[in-house]
Amino acid sequence: MTTAFDPLHLAGRTxxxxxxxxxxxxxxxxxxxxxxxxAMATYYAQRASAGLIITEGVQPSAVGQGYPDTPGLHSDExxxxxxxxxxxxxxxxxxxxxxxxxxxxxxxxxxLPGDLHPVGPSAVAAAGQLYTHEGMKDFPVxxxxxxxxxxxxxxxxxxxxxxAVDAGFDGVELHGANGYLxxxxxxxxxxxxxxxxxxxxxxDRIRFAVEAVRATAEAIGPDRVGLRISPCNxxxxxxxxEPDEVYLALVRALEPLGIAYLHVLQCGPERxxxxxxxxxxxxxxxxxxxxxxxxxxxxxxxxIEDGTAxxxxxxxxxxxxxxxxxxxxxxxxxNTPDSATFFGGDERGYTDYPTLSRV
Length: 359
Known about the structure:
Blueprint: E1 8-10, E2 13-15, E3 19-21, H1 38-45, E4 52-58, H2 76-91, E5 96-100, E6 119-120, E7 129-132, E8 135-138, E9 143-144, H3 147-166, E10 171-176, H4 181-186, H5 202-220, E11 225-229, H6 243-254, E12 261-265, H7 272-281, E13 285-289, H8 302-305, E14 311-314, H9 316-320, H10 324-329, H11 339-342
Helix pairs in contact: 1-2, 3-5, 5-6, 6-7
């Protein structure tokens, strides 16, 4: 029987275990030009016992930024900053992927340089507010991407992936979950387009996700590329009342590309059936995050033993327990995540980030 503590081959490396650190937005890119810092290198190196670390969301372009002080991978100084992180993780024997996250309509002009404005598949604002350095502000109506803009955005993912490899990352994960740009193309209320990227068919709705993954795979090799999805996740106001057809079609379209992994955020126990269906369609590594904040008799690890998943990812629990794989092995004890740390509080005094550190 395969367990969470058995090795796994991924991206040309042998992972020490099947426990992944989930991506969590941290808003601590205080280096020049939103680049990584020494503190970030320490943070990730401390968690290098994870079989796989997936970083916080990293914007592939300036307009892709959705929150204050989040890092990018679209400039030379950002590549240089990330090298200290990847070097630190590799020195501890770890494997690390960069999560490429274009936030789309989730953002605000106050966070962007020059006259940039958040963009999206359609000019539909998200409900709610987000934190800026000037306080909470309503989400604006995004600028609808033109057909040319869509192609440019896909190229931005590929370019950022090449930068990630230059920075020493072992691969990249495209963020297609939690209401950000790729997810916005999949959503019924966020994508109202009538062109090839829109609502004409399921194939049109999934096209942006597929082409972004394809371009990234062509740029750095499919064995270095993963995709994260969260079917039916209402976070940041994306509606998916009937997700099964869309996500099964998406995974079937991705299967021939031979990417490294599919990372699924299961939004409630009632969605396990869809996870199992996706597993049957995807021959690569499947990473599961079932959204449970703490272990319960190691039920999450049982998904590896019964073949539902190849890896399990943990979010907040990794913040409080940098040596989480060993604590899972011994069944505790576990530190409880501190709410101020979890939601972005730090030495600069930012403690009210209600949308940060998502798993």
